[in-house]
Amino acid sequence: MSSAEPVTGLILSGGGARAAYQVGVLAAIAELLPVGAANPFPVIVGTSAGAINAVSLASGAMDFRGAIQRLTAFWQGFRSHLVLRSDWPGVIHQATRFVSHNLMGIGAPVPVALLNSSPLRGLLNDKLHMPGIAEAIAQKQLKAVAVTAFGYESGQAVTFYQGGGTIESWLRHRRIGVPTQLSVEHLLASSAIPLLFAPVKIGEEYFGDGAVRQSAPISPALHLGASRVLVVGVSGNPRGVDPEQPLQRAYTGQQPTLAQIGGHMLNSTFIDSLESDIELLQRLNQFSHLLPDGVPSRALGAAPVDVLVISPSQPIDEIAARHRQELPAALRLFLRGPGATKTSGAGVLSYLLFEAGYCSELIDLGRRDALAKRDELCRFLGLVEPAVSA
């Protein structure tokens, strides 16, 4: 790759089971690429469940199309018990421990977690080929891959990255970059949703979901050398709504349920920072074009960054509500009290519904949304023409 060629970064945001949407987008990209094409994303950055997708893609970067096929099969075969204890004894035991110690102070210290996500460790150890990252870097099929986690003691968003060549670490306000050899522990830490999943210890500090206090989700890709970025979001609110027109809806006047409150908190964690960062980057791009001729925009930190965003065209909450009966009985009962099985509380459900029907529908939606932007994707990736016609 010559220095004049753009370096494309892929941003995969967090969002629990919502990350299945990203797989559909990636599957569409694999269809658009010529047969045998190399990995089009030298820089891959993921957060939360997006970190799992990012590392899965990076570890299989030597065969991009094959990596997408494996990732698709991985999500299409999901069941809740592969990610967390969804059986009656497991759910009851974890809930009892959480209430007795964390709320009442009874018994020995236990992780702050409403759900037991221990099965996820075994799943990732079984499915991921972590040495593939180093191989892809050595063969110049990958420049760097990174995952972000949140340090509970430092209060920092820490981006752990593995890359080739000389990539300088960075230190910004409450966000740092740390070179390392990525492991399953980093993925478990990055995807540990606060209060729902247990924190994970890396070194001397416990870490949780990387979306917490991640004020600039796109920034790590730029630090790792990306000059343009494809952002795959998991927003539950379709883009294209006219901000000048107030939404017309009927209000029930009912008090919000615990799940409804929790859903908005999760959305603010996983979605708001990414969308704000995209908006900021687009404004900086506009500013760079207004600079007088001869003024170096890069020296001012305002070098334009080409950004393409693909996000759900349908409300994910509504999709989750249609699939709520797929939840195992124990989890369904556990979530019914807070209101997560009601339509108004489907926001929480959309993050925890690790079931094949729901994940497959999100994959299909992601593929359709990406192919709807076929022309933009082809221009962005430098493809002469799409490889598919439908």
UniProtKB/TrEMBL annotation:
Keywords: Hydrolase, Lipid degradation, Lipid metabolism. InterPro entries: NTE, PNPLA_dom. A motif (GXSXG) lies at residues 46-50. Pfam families: Patatin. Residues 10-222 form the PNPLA domain. Signal peptide: none annotated. This is Patatin-like phospholipase family protein. It comes from Pseudomonas farris.
